[in-house]
Amino acid sequence: MEVFVITITKFKAMNEECLKAYFSFSVDKWGDFYVRNCKLFEKNGHRWINFPDERFESDGVMKYSAYCGFAKREIKDKFEKEVILAIDYFISVTNPTEQQEIPF
Asked: Is the dihedral of CA 88, 95, 7, 38 positive or negative?
């Protein structure tokens, strides 16, 4: 199994219902591949991330479609877990607040 490092490059704490933060990250072993404008959500003790997405209306309901993702749920879940660990580490080191943008 290949070891890679996920680095949180930008972070903005939020407190809007389930939305807890906007963030960007990079993956070192993927040629410093980066993804901007991701979202961290939390509800009922469950946390998850969303990749950047497009918002659209369908039958009067707002919907979202991610620009990228994983074809296999198992891979998505593993990657999401690693990104959330990177966010937890970032928060423990920087202690960001809603008022403190790091930089976005």
From this structure: positive
